[in-house]
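Quick one:
INPUT:
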């Protein structure tokens, strides 16, 4: 078994662990650190449920090994806000009914955070295109688009 000592900063806290070289970043977050807000659906890069931010860019945590995040800054849904202290995007999801089962929601929030930071999202079609790598089986996407549209320009 090949192991490596890694240090990863997650939501502002530095974690140092010895991990197996084959450990997925999504499993490192969920199982090693106990940060289960990052969801795992397909585990092969299709559904977007595991989306996190790595050094400022949204990535699929299921397509990376934990060792690849050594020395990096990771942001997860846990870092956005918390119950009673939701950030504006989370509040908009709540107010616009942008979730039903909530399984896709962490990935949607992290992708939307990246989109809002980088793009003007002038039209709803721009938002839909930006979300095209995140699958939702419940909402039909309309309310998610409305929620993101409600906070654009304020992020
Ligand atoms: S669990 Fe990573 S993309 Fe589906
Ligand atoms: S709210 Fe259920 S998958 Fe999106």
């Amino acid at each position: 078994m090949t192991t490596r000592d890694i240090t990863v900063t997650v939501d502002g806290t530095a974690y140092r662990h010895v991990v197996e070289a084959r450990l997925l970043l999504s499993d490192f977050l969920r199982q090693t650190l106990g940060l289960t807000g990052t969801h795992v659906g397909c585990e092969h890069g299709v559904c977007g449920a595991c989306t996190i931010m790595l050094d400022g860019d949204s990535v699929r945590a299921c397509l990376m090994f934990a060792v690849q995040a050594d020395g990096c800054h990771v942001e997860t849904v846990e870092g956005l806000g918390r119950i009673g202290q939701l950030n504006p995007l989370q509040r908009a999801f709540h107010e616009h009914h942008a979730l039903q089962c909530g399984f896709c929601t962490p990935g949607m929030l992290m992708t939307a955070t990246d989109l809002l930071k980088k793009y003007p999202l002038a039209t709803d079609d721009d938002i839909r295109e930006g979300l095209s790598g995140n699958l939702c089986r419940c909402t039909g996407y309309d309310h998610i688009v409305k929620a993101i549209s409600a906070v654009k320009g304020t992020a």
